[in-house]
Amino acid sequence: MENVLTTTIEAVVAFDQHSVLWALIVGIILAFLLGAGMGGNDVANAFGTSVGSGVLTVIKAYILASIFETLGAVLVGWSVTDTMRKGVVDTDQYLNNPKELMLGQVAILGGCAAWLLMATVLKMPVSTTHSLVGATLGFSIVLRGLNGIRWMKIVNIVISWFLSPALSGTISVILYMIVDFAVLRRDNPFECGLRALPVFYFVCIAFNVLMVTWDGSKLLHFDKIPVWGAVIISIGCGFIAAMFVQFFLKPRINRKIQDEMVSKPKVQSVIVNSDLETDRYIVGKEVKDVESGGCTTKVRSFLGWLLPDKDRVEDEQTIKLFSTIQVFTACFAGFAHGANDVSNAIAPLTALVAIYKDKNARQEEEVPIYILLYGVFAICVGLWTLGHRVIRTVGTNMSEINPAT
C-alpha cells in the first residue's frame, strides 16, 4: 500500500498539465466526431422503423430522438459510462504514468470515430459498443500486453453481443404474437386494440420508470431510493399513465380515427376466410397422411395457425391505432439508447478530463453532467446531418413493415 501511494504521489508531482493539454483538446474534438457518428448510425437504428412504417416523418423523428436521448443520458447514462471507462481495463496499471492512459483514450476516440463515420456514410448499421470495446482492448494490449484487462468483464460483454440479438428477436416475436392473438385476429380488432391501449402504456411507463429509479443517477440522488420504493414509484407512474390513456387519450384517439375514416372514400376490405384456410389444411393432411403419416402436415397446420397469413390485410383503423403506440415506443427506444450508448462517446472523454484534473489515473471522479450533455449534443448533430442514410436502410430496405409489426 505504501509503495502504491509513493508511486501515485511521484506520478502526480511529475504530471505536467500543460504538456498534455493538446491530448485533452484533441479528445474533445474526437469525442464530438464519435458522438456524431453514433447519432447518424445508432440513433437512426432506433427510429428507423417508425419512419419506415410512415408513422413519423424524418424531422419529427429527429426532434423526438433529440429530446429522449438527452433524458436517457442524464437520468441513467452515468452508470454505463463508469463501466466503459473503468470496467474493461484496470486503470491502476497506469498509476505511475497517467499520460499513457490519456494517449490511449485519444486513440480509442480516434479509431471509433473514424470507423463509425465511415460506416454511416456507407449506410451500414453497426454497433458502437463493439467498436469501443475493441479499441480499448487494442490500446491496452499495445501498452501493457494482457496485463490489466478485466477478462471476466470482457467475457460478459461478448456474451451480451450474442444474447442481445437473440433475446431481442425472441421478445419481439412473443410481443407480436400477443398483439396478433389479442387484437389483430379478433372479429373487432379496433375495439380490442382500444381496450388494450392502457395496458400497453402501463407496462412501458412502469418499466422505464423502474429503470430510472432503481439504482439511478447519483447526480439526481436517485441512487438513494430503495428497491421497494423504486417498484412502488414505477407501478404508480404506470397506473397514472394508464388512467390518463383510459379516460383522456383513448376517447380522443377513437374520435380522431373515426373522423378520418368517415372523411375517406370507402374501399372494399379484403377478408381472410378462416374456414377456407382450415379446409386447405385438411386437404393437405389427407395427401400427407399417405406419404408420411401426417406428421409433416400437423406441423404445417400448427404453424399455419400460429403464424399470420402473409396475404392478410390488416384493419385500417387498427393500424392507425398502433401508429400512436409506435410513436410512444420509439421515444422510449431513444431513451434507452441515450441511457446506454451515450457512454460510448463520453467514457473516454470522461477519463481524459478526470486524468487532467486529478493528475492521476484512478478515475474516482463521478461523471460530470456537462460531459453527458456534450455527448448528447454531438449525437444530435450527427443524427440531424447523417441520420437519414441509416434510417432508410433500417426503415425501408430491410423488410416491409407497418405500425403493428
List the helices and strands and how they pair.
Layout: H1 2-14, H2 17-52, H3 58-75, H4 77-87, H5 98-121, H6 128-144, H7 151-184, H8 189-213, H9 227-263, H10 274-292, H11 295-306, H12 316-340, H13 342-358, H14 369-397
Helix pairs in contact: 2-3, 2-5, 2-12, 2-13, 2-14, 3-12, 3-14, 4-13, 5-6, 5-13, 8-9, 8-12, 9-12, 10-11, 13-14
Membrane topology: Multi-pass membrane protein
GO molecular function: phosphate transmembrane transporter activity
Protein name: Phosphate transporter
Describe this structure in words.
With 405 residues, this protein is mostly helical. Helices cover 78% and strands 0% of the residues. The model is unreliable at 4-8 and 268-292 (pLDDT under 50).
Helix content: over 70%
Number of separate helices: 14
Largest sheet: none
Number of E-state strands: 0
Note the run of SSEs as H and E.
HHHHHHHHHHHHHH
Transmembrane segments: 20-40, 61-81, 101-122, 158-184, 196-214, 226-249, 367-386
Pfam family, one: PHO4
Family: Belongs to the inorganic phosphate transporter (PiT) (TC 2.A.20) family.
Function: Sodium-phosphate symporter.
Keywords:
mainly alpha; 405 residues
At a glance:
The chain is an all-alpha fold and 405 residues long. The protein contains 14 helices and no strands. 78% of the residues lie in helices and 0% in strands.
